[in-house]
Design goal:
Blueprint lengths: L1 H13 L3 H19 L5 H34 L5
Helix pairs in contact: 1-2, 2-3
């Protein structure tokens, strides 16, 4: 089940559907943590890395949106 959730998370991540991706990754993480009982287990670390990668993508998208908003607000300002 955890592997299916991981793959669904990757699918949505590729399509920049971050909320759906997060939900699948988080559920996968909880299952693996509960079953494997070791944060150092390879499968737990793998999903942790995917969650970190997702977080970095969200941060990058937020910065791009902020830059776009700033540029669009500046184009309306006339410099003398």
């Amino acid at each position: 089940m955890a592997k299916v959730l991981e793959e669904l998370g990757k699918y949505h991540l590729e399509r920049t559907e971050y909320a759906k991706s997060y939900a699948y990754f988080q559920e996968c993480y909880e299952i693996r943590k509960r079953i494997l009982r070791k944060a150092s287990h390879e499968d737990v670390q793998k999903i942790s890395c995917l969650l970190l990668y997702l977080h970095k993508n969200i941060e990058r998208e937020i910065k791009l949106r902020e830059q776009t908003e700033t540029k669009s607000s500046l184009t309306g300002v006339r410099l003398m």
